[in-house]
Design brief:
Blueprint lengths: L15 H11 L9 E7 L2 E7 L8 E6 L2 E6 L20 E6 L4 E9 L2 E8 L14 E2 L2 E2 L1
Antiparallel strand pairs: 1-2, 2-7, 3-4, 4-5, 6-7, 8-9
């Protein structure tokens, strides 16, 4: 069976990287924890908010590599000497990944009331119009 992708459409030239991006996103392994929101805050700004009850700044890391934003969390084990009758607050490590479009940059991050906010902004590229000259050819040689 042959794999067909949207990048194989004859009008989409040079978009093979989008196929790889879609595959990478599908395989990212996000299991639903921690829960998050993505909101559009303006025409070219966004905010990702992750619910991280019990995590402090020292328990978290945020990295950006090849347009992939990765948030990792690992809490220190502070359960020594404590007896839980019920433990409903997750205290596990996690990794949550987001793939950012070209031109989207992280403008800041802050932790407030158990919510990690990561602000993103898109730089709008300039529209460039360029005329392409047509050179006349005779017998396979340029004139």
């Amino acid at each position: 069976m042959t794999k067909v992708s949207f990048a194989s459409h004859p009008y989409l030239l040079g978009f093979e990287q989008l196929d790889r991006l879609v595959e990478r996103t599908a395989k990212s392994g996000n299991d639903g924890y921690p829960p998050y929101n993505i909101e559009q805050r303006g025409e070219s700004s966004y905010r990702i908010t992750l619910a991280l009850a019990g995590f402090g700044e020292d328990d978290l890391s945020i990295t950006l590599e090849n347009n992939q934003l990765v948030v990792r969390g690992r809490q220190a084990d502070d359960t020594e000497g404590r007896v839980f009758l019920h433990r409903g607050i997750a205290a596990r490590q996690f990794q949550r990944s987001f793939v950012l479009a070209d031109g989207v940059e992280v403008s800041g991050a802050h932790l407030e009331h158990g919510l990690l906010h990561i602000d993103l902004a898109r730089d709008e590229p300039e529209t460039i119009v360029r005329a392409i000259p047509i050179n006349a050819r005779t017998n396979g040689k340029e004139t």
